[in-house]
Design goal:
By secondary structure, the protein is α/β, with parallel strands linked by helices. Helix content is 32%, strand content 24%. Strand 3, helix 1 and strand 4 form a beta-alpha-beta unit. The protein is globular. The termini are far apart.
Length: 114
């Protein structure tokens, strides 16, 4: 059975999640909106090896850390839906508007389909 750990991130206290297999200790981070040092510290504390990023949608509090995390750890990005391209394109502006850390643009490795 998969395990998970929830980590509130960003000034919005949005819940990012770390999901992993207890046998392999491989997992994913879901909706890394920001506070990447905090998220990465939790991943290390849990002993999880991240293999991918999963996005439910691309609002700043859910996707703001995605580009940086994917680039620094070489992780594929699964999701969000192609209809969220508008939000991905605006992440840098949203980060400035809401006082978040700078957000890098990204291109998902695989989009979620209808």
């Amino acid at each position: 059975m998969l395990r998970y750990h929830t980590v509130p991130v960003t000034p919005f206290a949005q819940n990012a999640s770390i999901l992993w297999c207890p046998e392999t200790m491989e997992g994913a981070v879901i909706d890394p909106g920001g506070d990447l040092p905090r998220l990465q510290a939790e991943v290390k504390r849990l002993g999880v090896t991240l293999r991918q990023i999963l996005l439910t949608h691309a609002h700043i509090d859910h996707a703001g850390g995605t580009g940086t995390l994917a680039r620094t750890l070489g992780l594929p990005i699964i999701g969000p839906h192609p209809g969220d391209q508008f939000w991905i394109d605006g992440l840098a502006d949203q980060a400035r508007m809401f006082g978040f850390a700078p957000a890098e643009p990204f291109t998902p490795t695989r989009w979620l389909a209808d």
